[in-house]
Amino acid sequence: MARFFRGKWGSGLSLFLSISLWGVSMFLVFQQNYATSESVDLSDISIGAAEVGEFQNWMNITMGGRKIGYAMHSLSNTPLGYILKDYSLIELPMGGAVKEVYLDSYAVLNLDYSMKVFTFGLVSDEYTTDVHGEVRDNKLVVKMRSGNSESAVTYDAGKGIYLPAVVPLLAKARAFSRGEFYLPTFDPFSLTTDELGIAIGSIEKIQTELGERSGYRVALTFSGVTSLMWIGDDGVVLREEETGGLAMIRTDRQRALDMPVVDGGGPDLLNELAVPCNGEIKDPRNVKYLKVSLKGIEPEFFDLEDDFQTVVSTDPLVVEIHTDRIRSSVLTDSARFLAPQPLLQVDDPRIISAAGRITAGISGQGARAEALESWVFRYVKKDLTVSLPSAVDVLEIKKGDCNEHTALYTALARASRLPAKVCIGIVYKDGYFYYHAWPAVFLGGWRPVDPTFGQQIADAVHIKLLEGGFERQADLMRVVGKISVTVLEYSYGENL
Questions:
Q1: How far apart are CA 136 and CA 468, in angstroms?
Q2: Count of beta carbons in the 10 Å neighbourhood of residue 387
Q3: pTM of the predicted model, to two decimals?
Q4: Which pLDDT tens digit goes with each residue over 467-478?
């Protein structure tokens, strides 16, 4: 029987999604595939120091109506420019446990609210991530430090970079004129730049912890997912509502800092984001063939075909996973699957040294791939983790969930000259599918591996939706709350 950890199993990917869905306090993305008009021309907006009122806004963060944290947003006018600060403390119930997460950001803005510089930090347990960005000469230079490793990426910023936190200020500057506009923005979770869609609606009555207020209803759309916020005529956010029952409600400092004891007995994030499944799968870790119908997915935006997965039809969308008969294929661009990436430090001496020790004296690519899987499964303690998964950090901290296992395995495999990629999708457990990440290694064909579950060949209840680096995880927001699975057929196949 396949080895896998029980009890506090889960997907850090679900946590990534939940954090990525915070509208004003975080940096969000809107895929260009969904954009229907040009980015807004901000030159007609008269913005100056006299138009901006300094403020400090406190919010309670709730899930399913239960308080799980608080956030503080502030704006001040300084000789450097506008200073925008955000700070959040979130106690996330996940898989029966509670994870404490600290998020903070600091940004210096130009007079048109475009970004000069920003810093973003995430702290939870032993994992710490810091992202720093600066716009200079129409370029955004981003440096990311995760634990004791650092990487840098450069992006085009010819149209400026606007953080979603400035949406209320821009809406006020536009006199809350009805309609849609788009802003180029940056997402530190996926290290990508893209567009954020904003639709300003009419005034509605909204309940806050300071009483009933009137606010403009504003929709922010990114990756096919829409969140809502209500903004007062002073440009201060009154309420936000996000996917998964998450909300932020305006309050005062005293009530925000009055944190209740959050335990695992209430709404659970993994359950809130679980994908419903019509049909039961018995002994899922040993399933080698699965045929399912998927609803809520637009196939053209996803990577559904692979050597271990086949699209049978697109209308309706039917997919087969067949890990007992992996197809042979030719890898024409092996360099792409051997190269380092910001979170996969393949060329780091620590990764190279670890890969060498693990595979020492082992010949044959298949045997080396199996040795790496077995080692990562034993080496990394199974724990729900909040982090941007960095292979070097996982090697040092030695704990995590699917993201951490996948990052470490992929980096080690590439350092061992084994082409490897990250698969992102869903996996079945206890009547539901949960968001999950796992690697695949090329051995004459792409073989799915799951070092989180301890599987040399991942079972067939792993349904791949996307592939690539962890930057592709943001694309999963296209299907959050929309996707459902119907089991059509499954079997345990023959022993490989």
A1: 29
A2: 29
A3: 0.81
A4: 986 566 667 777
Using the predicted structure, report yes or no on whether residue 3 has a pLDDT greater than 70.
no
Residue 33 has pLDDT above 90, yes or no: no
Distance CA 81, CA 48 (A): 11
- Judge whether 268 lies within some domain: no
Distance CA 86, CA 104 (A): 5
Residue 31 pLDDT exceeds 70: no
Distance CA 178, CA 36 (A): 16
- For residue 157, the tally of other CB atoms under 10 A from its CB is 21
Question: Is 188 in contact with 470 (CB distance < 8 Å)?
Answer: no
CA-based nearest residue to 194, from 344, 421, 75, 20: 20
- Domain, as residue range, for 92: 26-257
Question: What CATH number does the domain containing 205 carry?
Answer: 2.50.20
Q: How far apart are CA 355 and CA 413, in angstroms?
A: 7
What's the confidence (pLDDT) of residue 462?
A: 97
Contacts of 360 (CB under 8 A, 6+ apart): none
Residue 219, beta-bridge partner list = 199, 228
314 in the same domain as 245: no
CA 421/CA 351 separation, integer angstroms: 16
Give per-residue pLDDT as tens, 47-98: 444 455 688 999 999 887 889 899 999 989 888 889 999 999 988 877 777 8
Structural domains counted in the chain = 2
Strands 81-94 and 246-251: unpaired
Which range in 113-122, 221-230, 313-322 is most confidently predicted, on average pLDDT? Answer: 313-322
Are residues 328 and 203 part of one domain?
no
133 inside domain: yes
Please name the amino acid found at residue 25: S
Tell whether 326 is covered by a domain: yes
Flag whether 265 is in a domain: no
